[in-house]
Amino acid sequence: MSPAHSLVPDDLVPDDLRRRYSRTPEGRAWLASLPENLDRCLRKWELVVEDGLGPWSGFGALVVPVQRVGEPLVLKLAYPHAEAASEPIALRLWGGSGAVRLLDQDLEDGSGALLLERLDSTRRLQDVPFPEAIEVWGRIVRQLSIEEDYRPEWAALDRLDARAEKWSDELPARWADLDRPFPRWLLEAALDVCSTRGIVGRRGGRDVLVHTDLHGMNVLASLDSDAFRAIDPQAAVGEAEFGVAPMLWNRLPELRHRDAPGALLERCHDLARAAGLDAEGAREWAILREVENALWYAAKTDHRRDLERSLWVASALCSRPLPGLPEAWELKRLDGTRHS
């Protein structure tokens, strides 16, 4: 095939992704680079785009279904940002155990394209009834929680105790600058976690590789079995309990209406049990993460419902629900919402 003939179909980029990244010069530059980068990867890895499927888009990536000698794969191009940088590192460390397999990575011109095995996008853990989903999620966490070894990739990953230490300095100033968007006691609850989980005050704990965004939409079934595996890791090194929070702030409408805060605490305990984790550590990390999320949302003009959800979760986990917030079943998370 002549190099002048593009292998990339017209209108490959979904409209929602195009709208999202057309708002800034950097985003428009990335969108403009996609056809050339995709075309180069298709040629380099001898791939063909599969008709009738996709393409799919996450909040910050284009995912194209492709085949190589009949093998179903996906080609993923993520918008270049710090969180995306940890994905190929983590996938190489996991080596397909509990997570999607990484077959290759394109480093030319910083495109960050990943060639991945294809999973079944129609079968998400998000859609599995919660009691069963807890056990599946727990098994995956056990697989992903590998301890640091000799491989040099570990050095490039963020450390969670260092993140907590950084938040201990930043959160009070952000809270004050935003005119105290929630009561001081909730801020202090988060700072207490910083003091016990940060570098300075930490006592013990086991550091492992952590998928910090392991909610039900980031767990898909294999094409040829019922086994589920994780995708889209935002990876860091630290206590595995840090990773429980996304399963708490998702699927809130499914909590029982009677004593929803108590049901959330039970869910935290059940998730920790299934993964072999410390339930109190999971609760503490989730409080800290949601307080930090709340401050991020409070700084935006169009995230009121996201702010309310984070405050509901954080205060419920403190067994001190804030008054005036919507009920749990009204706090649906929208796909693509930012969480720390």
Topology:
Blueprint lengths: L14 H7 L3 H20 L3 E2 L6 E2 L3 E8 L2 E8 L3 H13 L7 E5 L6 E5 L1 E6 L5 H15 L13 E2 H18 L6 H14 L9 E5 L7 E4 L5 E3 L4 E5 L6 H4 L10 H16 L3 H20 L5 H14 L23
Parallel strand pairs: 8-12
Antiparallel strand pairs: 1-3, 2-3, 3-4, 4-6, 5-6, 7-10, 9-12, 10-11
Written overview of the protein:
The chain is an alpha+beta fold and 340 residues long. Helix content is 41%, strand content 16%. It has helices at residues 15-21, 25-44, 82-94, 130-144, 160-177, 184-197, 246-249, 260-275, 279-298, 304-317; strands at residues 48-49, 56-57, 61-68, 71-78, 102-106, 113-117, 119-124, 158-159, 207-211, 219-222, 228-230, 235-239. Strands 1, 2, 3, 4, 5 and 6 form a six-stranded antiparallel sheet that branches. Strands 7-10-11 form a three-stranded antiparallel sheet. Strands 8-12-9 form a three-stranded mixed sheet. The longest helix has 20 residues, at 25-44.
H/I helix tally = 10
Order of helices and strands: HHEEEEHEEEHEHHEEEEHHHH
Unreliable parts: none
Q: What is the average per-residue confidence, as pLDDT, rounded to a whole number?
A: 91
Shape: globular
Strand content: 15-25%
Give the biggest beta sheet: 6 strands, antiparallel
Question: Based on helices, strands and strand pairing, what is the structural class?
Answer: alpha+beta
Distance between the termini: 45 Å
Radius of gyration: 21 Å
Beta-strand segment tally: 12
Helical residues, percent: 40-55%
